[in-house]
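Pilot study result, target chain (68 residues):
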Amino acid sequence: MENKIFDSREAAAYLHICYDTLVRSVRKNEIPHFKVGRKLLFRKDSLDEFIRKQEDGANDDLHTAAQN
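Predicted structure:
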């Protein structure tokens, strides 16, 4: 299994978000990341899991809204 590592710009592109949004989310510890020196890095599989959790949360919200 390949474990791709993204830098900040690549991670923002992969998530289809603005670079500044990525940086703000990292500061809030909302997006999984790690640092090597001053460089922010992101594992592709961690970002994929982050996306899955976001989808699950959105689906839960839709399900709750449909019940009301």
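One observation from the pilot: The first helix runs from residue 8 to 15. A full batch analysis is planned for the follow-on phase.
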